[in-house]
Amino acid sequence: MNGLSEKYAQIVKTQAKSLGFDFCGIAKAGFLEEEAPKLEVWLNKNYHGQMSYMANHFDKRLDPTKLVEGAKSVISLIYNYFPGKRLPEGPEDLKIAKYAYGQDYHLVVKDRLKTLMENLRKEIGEIGGRAFIDSAPVMERQWAQKSGLGWVGKNSLLLNRDMGSFFFLAELIVDVEISPDPPMVKDYCGTCTRCIDACPTDAIVADGVVDASKCISYLTIELKENIPAEFKGKMENWIFGCDICQDVCPWNRFSKPHREPLFEMSPDLANMGKREWQEITEEVFQQVFAKSPLKRSKWSGLRRNVWFVESREG
């Protein structure tokens, strides 16, 4: 790598930090050779459930140069969402994943990515590329590991030694050569199996492999049909997403509250007790969750989830 590419790397990291990204790593764009057979097996076992989009664009998912013309570098970024104030999560409380406390991360982080790209163009010059935040066939955890940001844990999430896993991953795939970071080659999970042991639906089927069709997050968000009866009594009152495998992970003792005002919990959400979830009308749902990730489940999906966890004996 030449001095210019190293200078670009410093510019990227300085700009990313100024926009609130907690970590930034860079990898050389290319085919993810090791991931191809793993992805093929995962799809062939139907671990993606009804997420048919996961089987689309197989080649683009593995090779960013097919996603962005002339791609030379993948910039991976971490954006914290761990909340300072948490909703009650007692045995009788209805629960939602912590990432859904504030405004939709797709919009919030995408705005930061656009600003980052604009700032890089001002400092470096003409850059071609695209920004991604959980919205395209990009194997974000694998790219984050290749850029040294962490390792893929037994629960299949990226784990970072300084802040655990309560964060969003985002990427800029660009056509400029930027000095890459060394990949994370060590797995710091060791012999710990807390996430596997704690999963009430046995969704973690092997180290780093999740059968999404059994995952509570999938069942409460992605699944559009009725939740299969086999999961009665196993949902532990999660009505949107699930944090169990993260909550029990020892690395998340390093989680620190985020600094993003748009991820703060709204007063309306803070006041949602069990009865409010049970009795929520479509009008209130649209009003309270207009900018929330919860709108993905729609009012009808949320009602289905609440009914399912409340009727454990059915």
UniProtKB/TrEMBL annotation:
Keywords: 4Fe-4S, Cobalamin, Cobalt, Cytoplasm, Iron, Iron-sulfur, Metal-binding, Oxidoreductase, Queuosine biosynthesis, tRNA processing. [4Fe-4S] cluster 2 binds at C199, C215, C242, C245. Cob(II)alamin binds at R61, D134, N155, L158, L169, S217, C242, D243. [4Fe-4S] cluster 1 binds at C189, C192, C195, C249. Its cofactor is [4Fe-4S] cluster; cob(II)alamin. Its EC number is 1.17.99.6. InterPro entries: 4Fe4S_Fe-S-bd, 4Fe4S_Fe_S_CS, QueG, QueG_DUF1730. One of its GO terms (molecular function) is metal ion binding. One of its GO terms (biological process) is tRNA queuosine(34) biosynthetic process. Residues 180-209 form the 4Fe-4S ferredoxin-type domain. Binds 2 [4Fe-4S] clusters per monomer. Its main location: cytoplasm. It comes from the Bacteria. It catalyses: epoxyqueuosine(34) in tRNA + AH2 = queuosine(34) in tRNA + A + H2O. Pathway: tRNA modification; tRNA-queuosine biosynthesis. TRNA binds at K224. The active site is at D134. It is found in: Cytoplasm. It holds the Pfam family Fer4_16. GO terms for cellular component: cytoplasm. HAMAP family: QueG. Catalyzes the conversion of epoxyqueuosine (oQ) to queuosine (Q), which is a hypermodified base found in the wobble positions of tRNA(Asp), tRNA(Asn), tRNA(His) and tRNA(Tyr). Belongs to the QueG family. This is Epoxyqueuosine reductase. It comes from Mariniradius saccharolyticus AK6. The gene is queG.
